[in-house]
Amino acid sequence: MNTPAAASVPPFESPRYGGASLADLSPSVLASLGVPGESGPLELPPVRRACVLLVDGMGWEPLLANRGSAPFLSSLIDAAAPITAAFPTTTATSLTTLGTGLSPGHHGVIGLQVAIPGTDRILHQLRWDPDVDPEAWQPRATVYERAERAGVAASYVAAGAFEGGGLSRASARGSRYLAANDITELAVRTRAALTAADRALAFVYHPDLDSYGHMFGVDSAYWRLHLGHVDRLAEQIAAALPPDSALYITADHGMVDTGPDTRIDVESDPALSAGVRVLAGEARVRQVYAREGAADDVLAAWRERLAGSAEVVTRDEAIARGLFGAVDDGVRARIGDVLALAHGDTALVAPKAEPVESSLVGQHGSLTPVELRVPLLRVTTVA
What mean pLDDT, rounded, does the chain reach? Predict the structure, then answer.
């Protein structure tokens, strides 16, 4: 088995639920819009219209390292500070965290891939499964439903391909879905959403920076060039803000560049597959579901084989450390018996089951600062 060296392993951080995380941004925005019963831990100023622009894959650390490619965003950085994504640091979890204002232990979307309790089937929470009802899987009220009940017009501006999908229904139901399939449409439709009502909330999602990071890496000309396009999008949205409005620019996770020499095949090694019922998660954070009675042996094998390359913990240890926030009883069974959180630039790949994903350069899901920290940049037109 190829086990990369673990030199200069940066420490893990923890999500800052209850203070400075994506789970705190949405309630704070609703509170700023005057929605009753919403907490505001981020203490955002009162406004009549608010826009949240989420740029998939634009972590705080890579943004700082590439300020020259994003002059508008760079102009906002010095007055800003990072918040944290949720855990795992992956899109499905973060979009639902932002869309509900809850930590993953409450909303239940706890990673890219999880085993459906009572089965050996995997639910891929970006692609979904027609046999799983998104509104039963994630029954909590979304921020859009709460905004609408309070008389705030809530819009969701994103690619039309996502409309009506399982993740959109789990994380964004209650919003008016405005399909926007390129940067120009995103800017135009966002302006329309913010000016269509006296009190408005617009969530804007742009996925392409993440795609370039996955394919070519964050440390690539592709990623930096597209960051410039994102910078222009943010500037255009900011320039079109109506009076008494605020724009908040954030992300769902950062990203780590990996390579062939940092990949560990956790699927084919007999020591790592022994006792495993389902292998889920993704390359930077694996969730391992053990056969009955085999959890202790699986834990020991994964700890031994991945020593120095990943931190391997039990479900109970992950919950006790607050990685998912407080965990509801119905969510607990969705979490793997064993979790492996990759250090450094290690990728825990499964080339047979996930041939495309295993070959990607940029990966995310773990708790390194590069993956966990995301920006919270602000623009207001409050007089």
Answer: 96
CA distance linking residue 152 with residue 183, whole number of Å = 25
State yes or no: pLDDT of 3 exceeds 80.
Answer: no
Encode pLDDT of 272-293 as tens digits: 999 999 999 999 999 999 999 9
Give per-residue pLDDT as tens, 54-79: 999 999 999 999 999 999 999 999 99
Residue 1 falls inside a structural domain: no
Specify whether 187 is located in the same domain as 323.
no
Give the number of C-alpha atoms closer than 13 A to the C-alpha of residue 44, restricted to the C-beta side: 36
Query: What pTM was estimated for this model as a whole?
Result: 0.96
One domain, residues 248 and 266: no
Whether residue 268 is predicted with pLDDT greater than 80 in this model: the reply is yes
Instruction: Say if residue 39 is in the same domain as residue 122.
Output: yes
The verdict on residue 139 lying in a domain is: yes
Pairing relation of β-strands 347-349 and 263-265?
A: parallel
**Residue 380 burial by Cβ neighbours in a 10 Å radius (0-12, 13-18, 19+):** middle
Q: What's the total number of domains in the chain?
A: 2
Percent helix, strand and coil across the chain, each to the nearest 5? 35, 20, 45
* Domain contains 17: no
* Amino acid symbol at 269: D
How many Cα atoms occupy the beta-carbon half-sphere of 333 within 13 Å?
A: 8
